[in-house]
Amino acid sequence: MDSLAFLKHVDRRKPLPVYVVHGDEEFLKRQVLAALRGVVLGEGDTAFGLSIHSGDKATLAGVRDELETLPFLTPCRLVVVENADPFVSQCRAHLEKYVAKPAPTGVLVLEVKSWPGTTRLAKLLEGDATIVCKTPAAHRLAAWCVEWAAAHHGKQLVAEAAKLLVDLIGSEMGLLDQELGKLAVYVGGKTRIETIDVDKLVGNSRTENMWKIFDAIGTGNSAEALTILGRLFEQGEEPLRVLGAFSMQLRRLAQAARWNQQGQSLDAALSRAGVPPFAHRSGAEQLRHLGRQRIDRLHDWLLETDLGLKGASQLPPRTVLERLVIRLAHKSARGETTSSHRPIG
Q1: Which of 148, 150, 175, 255 lies at a CB distance of 3.0 to 4.6 Å from 273, suitable for a disulfide?
Q2: In whole angstroms, how far apart are CA 300 and each of 132, 243, 250, 281?
Q3: Does domain 3-132 have CATH number 3.30.430.20?
């Protein structure tokens, strides 16, 4: 089951004896675990009914003892095994038997990173018992922000403001939630969060720094671009938020390049892509510097960087972003430049 669907209807569900919570979106995992705690243990002081085990130290005997102990001051016991991958690997056969005949006094939650659907245990826990916590597709994130702002922050987030927020922050839902909380406080008594609110609170300083980085990229000045990037990290900027701002500008440039290749003037293409008028000159320089070959690879580079920041790369996040900057800023090979008077290439 998708975690967003589970969270939307969690109050209507009767707790199951065993749940698996897996995926790469930690924010959604926290939300699902909090919702399960409320459904299983009810309101009030739930400390007596909750037991949390670490997957690398948990034992089958210890977990079963907790599950089979009569609850005290709660309707049921909730036993969570965090990072349960090693626990599942070691106790798979015993867990299969437990799923077939679970304790009536407890609910077991296995929080894992990997959950191959081909195993017998996975097949025994198909359907509502398996909750998948993955970041929604990019085109769904803005809609999620609108729903989340209304449900959890009591504000109406207009659609264009949601799109801008995702462009600026990126796809990490925990960071988006933090910014929505700040925006709710920022607008005060107003019921709506407008695009101008997102631009003022979230975008101004970040956009200014991003333009400085892209100005350096447009002149092929790798050292200057890396220096500004390093300054952002020293100020505590989150890597995924930096990538979100990078993605917004690079998508604009790629779109402008496509329209320019279709015959539109570069100024018209840049305006249509959302580049503000004051930045047309630097945007044109960036396009001429990047050239058609690199523009065609932007999507792949952004995807590779996003996956690298989320754990696919063994490199530190800062190094992953620096590699992207170097790819963008190094001098183009001869023949990759373009003109503002004709299509790229």
Answers
A1: 255
A2: 25, 14, 12, 26
A3: no
Instruction: Report the Cα–Cα distance between both ends of the chain, in Å, rounded.
Output: 47
Mind listing the pLDDT tens digit for each residue in 1-10? 999 999 988 8
CA distance 328 to 208: 18
What residues contact 231, with CB distance under 8 A and at least 6 apart? Answer: 209
Residue 154 DSSP SS3: coil
**What does DSSP assign to residue 309?**
I
What are the residue ranges spanned by the domains of the chain?
Answer: 3-132, 194-329
Main-chain phi, psi angles of 52, to 5 degrees: -120, 130
Model pTM greater than 0.90?
Answer: no
Rounded CA-CA distance 228/213 in Å is 6
Q: Two tokens at 259? A: 């329209």
The runs of H, that is alpha helices, within the chain are 3-8, 26-41, 60-68, 85-100, 120-124, 138-153, 159-169, 173-187, 195-198, 204-218, 222-234, 239-261, 266-272, 280-307, 317-329
SS3 at position 279 = helix
Q: Are 78 and 49 in contact (CB under 8 A)?
A: yes
**Mind listing the pLDDT tens digit for each residue in 132-171?**
999 888 779 999 999 999 999 999 999 999 988 888 787 8
Nearest Cα to Cα of residue 213 among 176, 248, 178 = 248
CA–CA distance, 29 with 49 (Å, rounded to integer): 20
In this structure, what are the phi and psi dihedrals at residue 305, rounded to the nearest 5 degrees? -65, -45
- Residue predicted with more confidence, 76 or 204: 76
Give the closest residue to 145 by CA, choosing from 189, 111, 195: 195
The string of pLDDT tens digits covering residues 106-133 is 999 999 999 998 999 999 998 999 999 9
- As a whole number of angstroms, the distance between CA 182 and CA 165 comes to 12
Which CATH fold would you assign to the domain 194-329?
Zinc Finger, Delta Prime; domain 3 (1.20.272)
| Beta pairing class for 50-54 and 77-82 | parallel
Question: 135 - beta bridge partners?
Answer: none
